[in-house]
Amino acid sequence: MAAMTVLFIEDDRMNRRVVRDMLDVAGVGMVEAESAEVGLALIDAHDFDMALVDLRMPGMDGLTAIGHIRARSDAKGGLPIIVVTADTAVDLRERCLAAGANDVIFKPVAMDELFDAMGRLLAEDDGAELI
Question: Residue 98: how many CB atoms within 10 A of its CB?
C-alpha cells in the first residue's frame, strides 16, 4: 500500500509547519504550496490523496482554487478537499461546501479535528483509515 500524500495550499509558512508536524505523527506525507497558483500546478504534475486549502491567500483565494480543481474533467477534479481557515463568517461552511470543498476545519488546527476530517473523507472514498 502506497503512503498517503496530502497537498497543503497555505501562504503562511508557520501554519504549514504545524500541519506538517501533525501529519508526520501519522506517517502522512505532505507537499507544501505557498499559493493557490503553485498548488494548482502541483496538482497538474502529481497525484495527491487529499488537499488542504486555506481561503485567504495573496493572488488567487482558496474558493477560486477549489473551483479550478472541481472544473477539471479528469479524476483529479474529484480530489478530496478540506478547507483550513481562520475565517469565522456565519455562512462560511455553506460557501465552502457550495464551492466544492468536502469539509471545513478552523485554525488554529487541532490534531484530532484534522484527523477526524481526513478520516471521514477517506471512509467516504474507500473505507480506508488514516491511522
Answer: 11
